[in-house]
Amino acid sequence: MTVSERSTRPLVPVLVGPTAAGKTAVAVALAERLPVTIISADARQVYRRLDIGTAKPDHATRARVPHAGLDVVVPGERYSAGRFARDAAGWITEALAAGRQPVVVGGTGFYVRALADGLFHEPPLDPERRGRLQAWAAGVPGPALVRWASRLDPRFSGGGRQRAARVLEVALLTGRPLSLWQQMARATGVMRPWYVVLTVPRELLRRRIAERVDAMLAAGLVDEVRAELARGTAPTAAGLDGVGYRETVAMLEARLAPAELRDAIVRATRAYAKRQETWFRHQLRDQPSTISRQPDNAWTLDATKPPEELADVIAARWRAIKLTADS
């Protein structure tokens, strides 16, 4: 890492993991040990009035611990990863200026990546050549595509057919490997991330998700959605298209039986959690230049332990890493 990069890109803890892993509870416990500002990297919590189905921290918690990234836009307004990165850059600067440590917390992978690694703007690709390449790749066995991808991009770390085809497409149509484009994009990142990845055994996570859905329904999720629709918000509006909300909308429109709502939300949430786990696993694996920039940059923790215990070890490790990074 260059001296310039060290001085202009602050080192920031990034707490990630699947929904219901306990990220918020750990972050709030951490705030009792360090003066932190929690920056939500959650594509659903940016929407005002959608509180129950997004599991936003309650008002008492938000009064005790500064938060940013909540209630940014109204339902129906699109909020992109790029906009999040720009907004979060300001929140990080404000927190540091106030003598607080920003901590990014969330499960929306694209938000985290845009903030930490910058935005990868795909160069123009010739549509005709792209179409021919896609047609050719469709007839090539998956293992062969992976071998070709590894030859064209030495930093390709593996993956399925779709990932390999993407690497081939960028390398052949731009003349540069995808990893190089991504490396150039990282120069626009606004921070250096220290990832803390919370993991939970699958069966326990499934139980936590079911308990969370039950709590949301008991807290009035259906009434929350009904009130938003009564405001004139379209049933398909951004915000209402998220997990839990779209199933509730379907029930209110008689496309889903009330007795089936709970199980429908549980299934959708479990599928979402699985996608989150896969995304973060690939994200950390596929960013070797980022991870190698500093020691202990990706740290996995067993989230079956109490939040207070996890906060203790995170705070201790953070102090040690911060001393090393600043020296």
Radius of gyration equals: 21 Å
| Helix content range | 55-70%
Which structural class best describes the helix and strand composition?
alpha/beta
Instruction: Give start-end ranges of low-pLDDT stretches.
Output: 1-7, 287-296
Q: What's the story with the biggest beta sheet?
A: 6 strands, parallel
Share in β-strands: 5-15%
The CATH topology annotation of the largest domain reads as Rossmann fold
Task: Give the SSE order as H and E letters.
Answer: HEHEHEHEHHHHHEHHHHHEH
CATH architecture label of the largest domain: 3-Layer(aba) Sandwich
Enumerate the strands of the largest sheet in spatial order, edge to edge or round the barrel.
3-2-4-1-5-6
Q: Which whole number gives the mean pLDDT? A: 89
- Helix segment tally: 15
Question: What is the 3D form?
Answer: globular
Task: For the structure shown, list the relevant keywords.
single chain, about 325 residues, alpha/beta, Rossmann fold, Histone, subunit A, 2 domains, 6-stranded parallel beta sheet, 6 strands
